[in-house]
Amino acid sequence: MTAAENKTLTFAKQILQIGRVGLTEADREQLRRLILDLLGVSHIGATLPWTQEMIAWAESFRGSGQAPVVGTNLSVAPSIAALVNGTAAHGYELDDTHDASMSHPGAVVIPAALAVAAQRGSSADDTLAAIACGYEAMARVGMAADASRVIHDGHHPTALLGPFGAAAAAARLMGLDEHDLARAWGHALSLAGGSMQFSDEPEGTTVKRLHAGYGAHNGVLAAELAARKIGAPARALDGKYGFMALYSKSPKLEELVVPSDGALQIHIISFKPYSCCRLFHSLIDGLREVSDDFKLKSESIKRIVVRGPGVLADQHMMRRPTSVMAAQYSLPFVVGATLVYGPHRYDSYREDKLADADILSLADRVDCEPDADIEAHYPAFMGTAVEITRADGTRRSATVMSSRGTAANPLSTEALYDKAQGLVREIQPRVDLNAARGKLWQAATGRDLARLFGAA
Predict the structure, then answer these.
(1) What is the dihedral sign for C-alpha 184, 225, 209, 432?
(2) Residues 224 and 299 in one domain
(3) Which structural domain range is residue 141 located in?
(4) Are residues 423 and 395 in the same domain?
(5) Are 401 and 21 in contact (CB under 8 A)?
(6) CATH code of 317's domain
(7) Full strand arrangement of the beta sheet holding 366-370
(8) Could you tell me the pTM of the whole model?
(9) What percentage of the chain exceeds 90 in pLDDT?
(10) What's the pLDDT at 380?
(11) Residues 293 and 264 in one domain
């Protein structure tokens, strides 16, 4: 068997070449923006109850490595830090997304890369290149697997794809070659998982927060095992029982190619201005249009119809969520919370709002219908149409295909900084985000970057 016939090995070689001759300035700028966005999200995520429990668990590993744990002065082994920090990064439903793979690469790849870089004392440039490798691998594996079908079949892409992205980032920093990375992906194949069951239950939803942590941890672990030459399949992606055979009904192996023009997936990442499922962001932008910038009174609304991909009705119509996670995944609740409190009240999904009569009253007026035209562009475009019927019978509708924060409708670096500031404002002692931003753009080592996520 030649390397050319082994698509896993060929893809691994291409991934590891990213940044070998230097990233472009546009690449470096985007990577810093991705880290800046995750910085605020991770620090606030570290204060949440489940992350606090994860930090307490990690305390027993104190001194096992040089990787910082977010929001603390604790340093542990890279895989442990990746697990905790990935969980923190995914804890507020505000981490970045790659729409075509329906995954959250930042919350997986960045914690994994920074943990390994801190352990190894990697340069900042190598760390940025490793993050680019991880994003590219995670995104392209998801694109090749046809992510919309993957999620429809009940697999959560962030957990499922994450180990492949994290392993790629870790392998790049560890100096592994394509054979080692293919072996790491062989381990990742057996470690990969992540069920969507959390979306179908009102309780037990906290596990979804850990999905990014699982992906980060398992990818680092897979790379470490591969570095030890512990055997694993070499055709993890395209083998007879490889990832595509197990998880994809219609694989597109042509997506397992890094373009020769150097156009990287980091440039088509969507940043999240709203703390809910990414699928609802175009809906929120549409609600802004049809509700006069959220000034429409609840009592004047008779019915709200949302049209979009079939997954909205299949997985997101729980009307009485009983956890924060379920609320952020509930289309009716998100509509109600947005119309009552506006789109930027991050606290509108907390426990004290779950029984909010105003939110629930509006949620009961929400219906969801499939839209074949919007479905045809999904998941590359996570569009929706929304129609409000007022009490007087008049109707107003809007369709949004590219919500705020997408590559087609981007957020500026200043907007990302403001988002992060709004999050860390709640933290005591307060994180000096302005100083952190300066250090981010001046960092010389990966350890410098990792320390931005440690204690203030």
Answers:
(1) negative
(2) no
(3) 3-273+417-451
(4) no
(5) no
(6) 3.30.1330.120
(7) 366-370, 301-308, 384-390, 395-400
(8) 0.94
(9) 89
(10) 87
(11) no
> Among candidates 374, 372, 377, which has minimal Cα distance to 385?
374
Q: Can you spell out the DSSP letters for 420-438?
A: HHHHHTT-SSPP-HHHHHH
Kindly state the average pLDDT of the residues 261-282: 95
Structure tokens at 265: 């997936």
Return the H-helix or E-strand segment holding 304: strand 301-308
Choose among 177, 165, 180: nearest CA to 264.
165
> How far is residue 171's CA from residue 398's CA, in Å, rounded to a whole number?
46
What is the per-residue pLDDT across 356-413, written as a single tens digit (0 to 9) for each?
999 999 999 999 999 999 999 998 899 999 999 999 999 999 999 999 999 999 999 9
* Strand bridging mode 366-370 / 67-68: unpaired
Dihedral (Cα; 196, 346, 434, 86), 10-degree rounding: -20
Q: Is residue 358 domain-resident?
A: yes
Mean of per-residue pLDDT scores for the chain: 95
Longest dimension (CA), the chain: 71
Tokens of 287: 């609600």
For residues 145 and 73, membership in a common domain is answered with: yes
Answer yes or no: are the C-beta atoms of 188 and 236 closer than 8 Å: yes
The radius of gyration of the chain's CA atoms, rounded to the nearest angstrom, is 21
Is the domain of 207 the same as that of 98? yes
Provide the number of structural domains found in the chain. Answer: 2
Q: Positive or negative CA dihedral for 317, 322, 324, 325?
A: negative
- Nearest in space to 187 (alpha carbons), one of 200, 176, 202, 198: 176
Count other C-beta atoms under 10 Å from residue 83's C-beta.
29
